[in-house]
Design goal:
626 residues, 38 strands, six-stranded mixed sheet, single chain, disordered N terminus, five-stranded antiparallel sheet, mainly beta, 4 helices
Length: 626
């Protein structure tokens, strides 16, 4: 007969008895105390025989031992229900070790030693169970596997009566517990290059249908929350990720979330061409009320900090770089904000609020890819606007610039009043007053000021014509108190052609230059009421208010001279004809205090006369010319 090892339960004691010559045992169903046996025993041929003697003919029978064991008799080997191989009962019991197998105290006393013994039983990563009870550990268990273990709490609590969330301080193992009705997964410390606390891997190999009927897609992780109609004064997060950072040195990057979507090197190996659109992060909010149900923010970025920016504080950073060194890469758009429906629209596509120290938008680092860096016409636009759109400078949208595509004009409006146009040839048309503090130059065209406009500048230069208003009446010159059509600076005005107008006014003390070097000019002496004539820097003559002319040098005329008043000159040279206008005798005699030597022509007697200081005398004429 074969020998079988059996386990006999005797009250509170368990004994293992060796049978050397036991007869075939009878059916286990007749000896089991419970019909719900955990293991199915391996039966000898013929079953169990309760009359089999143990240790000789006069020894106790198997039935006697069963009576002592209250019928709880099991064979030493067995097969798990549904299994295909027999193992010893001890092996079966070792499949599910827990804290009770190591006498871990559950009364709140220090369980560090017992927990360490429990952990040392596992040489490889596994799951360690903590049965219900109160646990305390002054040190964390560390024996056994050098890799993190996973502890499973089955209702364990700490000495304060709160759900247990770890075994010992700074325990690098993972702890899973039912924490106040929620699943809590915690690791108290980290190993070098350890595995993630939770690692989800989902291989998707089944084809998806091409309809939108099953729109849930496939998810490796899905958090679905439903909020009832209720009053809420606190934020509610369906997924909440918080990272506390104190590290320094090395790479220097700490992130609350690191999300990458990767198209692997073999993605095109099947030869079916480019793949689907790849998103690293897809954010969206949906209002299904059909109306304005409340504010919607698909994404909100917040930064909380005090003090000055001693390091880099950047709200959002987007970088594009080559994956393979030496291979040029190009992204068609850096940031795209748009709509997918003609019925959808923005109030403002992009809005910036808040104070700034350097620039609202800093484009200094944007480097256009020009065909020729010396020719701006070969460079792409830094900012591109579609024709007909406005670049506005105020919230009321009434001061703006835009491109009139129909008329090829770049137009400016100020407070909804048209101010200027620039045409395709570079010409400028001003519709209102223009004032400049610098130089205005029109090298290839004309500078035109409309009849109701004002042009004020320190200097004006044009190779064409300069036109100024002829009916301006609302500009009051603060220097003279008179209205002006055009006013120029202290350095005067110069032109290459003629000056045409009803009047030309020069400020008192100013001069009207007649040469490009400024040395030949007309000036006005307001103290003596004289018009002064300068030629090459030499004071040549004065014209008095009574129309008399005082020539400070010699006076030479090529065509003759005709004068109704006095002429004063050191030398008078007439190279053609000198004509004295005829006067009546009465007007000659009626002159008040004429200067001695004054010559006049008596038109009544047809004779020239000269004043000697006391009387007028006819001049003797010779014989008539033949």
């Amino acid at each position: 007969m074969s020998a079988y090892r059996i386990i006999v339960g005797c009250g509170l004691a368990l004994a293992c008895v060796s049978m050397a010559d036991a007869a075939p045992l009878m059916s286990l169903a007749q000896t089991a105390a419970s019909a719900q046996a955990r293991y199915r025993p391996t039966l000898p041929p013929g079953g169990l025989d309760l009359s089999t003697p143990l240790g000789g003919a006069s020894g106790p029978k198997l039935s006697d031992l069963m009576g002592l064991a209250d019928g709880a008799l099991q064979p030493s080997t067995g097969m798990a229900v549904g299994g295909t191989m027999s193992r010893t009962i001890a092996a079966h019991l070792s499949d599910n070790l827990n804290s009770r197998d190591f006498a871990v105290p559950t009364d709140g006393s220090d369980a560090a030693s017992a927990l360490n013994a429990y952990r040392s039983s596992a040489a490889a990563p596994t799951f360690l169970d903590l049965e219900p009870g109160q646990y305390s550990a002054t040190t964390a268990p560390q024996s056994g596997s050098p890799l993190p273990q996973i502890w499973i709490s089955h209702g364990a609590i700490d000495n304060s009566g709160q759900p247990l969330i770890g075994v010992g301080p700074n325990n690098p193992d993972t702890f899973v517990s039912n924490y106040k009705g929620g699943l809590r997964i915690q690791r108290g410390n980290n190993y070098q290059n350890d595995e993630p606390l939770v690692h989800l891997y989902y291989h998707m190999g089944a084809a998806m249908d091409n309809s939108h009927a099953n729109g849930n897609g496939s998810n490796a992780f899905k958090a679905e929350c439903d909020q009832s109609s209720m009053t809420t004064y606190q934020p509610i997060y369906c997924t909440n990720i918080i990272m506390g950072q104190r590290g320094y040195g090395g790479y220097g990057l700490t992130a609350a979330a690191n999300i990458f979507a990767i198209r692997p090197p073999d993605a095109l190996a099947d030869g079916k061409g480019p793949r689907n659109m790849l998103h690293a992060l897809d954010l969206g909010v949906i209002d299904q009320t059909g109306t304005n149900g409340g504010p919607l923010y698909p994404m909100e970025l917040d930064m909380y900090a005090d003090g000055d920016d001693v390091s880099q504080r950047i709200m959002a950073m987007m970088l594009f770089q080559n994956f393979t060194s030496g291979v040029k890469a190009k992204a068609s758009v850096g940031l795209l904000v748009g709509v997918n429906s003609d019925d959808a629209r923005f109030g403002s596509i992009v809005q910036f609020d808040g104070h700034f120290d350097h620039a609202g938008i800093d484009l200094a680092g944007a480097k256009p890819n020009c065909t020729d860096d010396t020719n701006i016409l070969t460079c792409p636009a830094l900012i591109y606007m579609n024709g007909g759109t406005k670049l506005s400078f105020d919230a009321q949208n009434d001061t703006f610039e835009y491109m009139d595509m129909a008329n090829h004009l770049f137009t400016t409006y100020v407070y909804n009043v048209k101010s200027s146009d620039i045409n395709a040839s570079g010409g400028v048309h001003f519709y209102r007053d223009v004032q400049m503090d610098g130089t205005f130059s029109a090298a290839n065209g004309n500078a035109t000021i409309t009849p109701d406009g004002l042009f004020s500048a320190q200097s004006i230069y044009t190779n064409g014509e300069s036109h100024f208003a002829t009916s301006k009446s609302n500009y009051l010159d603060p220097d003279t108190g008179h209205t002006r059509d055009a006013k120029f600076g202290l350095n005067g005005i110069a032109w290459g052609g003629g000056a045409l107008g009803d009047s030309l006014t020069i400020k008192d003390g100013g001069k009207l230059s007649l040469s490009t070097d400024g040395n030949s000019y007309l000036a006005y002496d307001p103290a003596n009421h004289l018009i002064q004539i300068y030629s090459y820097g030499v004071h040549a003559a004065n014209i008095a208010a009574d129309a008399s002319t005082d020539w400070l040098g010699s006076l030479t005329t090529e065509k003759g001279i005709y004068n109704r008043g006095d002429i004063s000159s050191d030398t008078l040279t007439v190279r053609s004809i000198a004509k004295i206008a005829p006067l009546t005798k009465a007007s000659i005699l009626g002159m008040s205090s004429p200067a001695e030597g004054t010559i006049a022509y008596d038109g009544d007697d047809h004779v020239p006369v000269i004043y000697t200081g006391t009387h007028w005398y006819p001049m003797q004429l010779g014989a008539a010319l033949q």
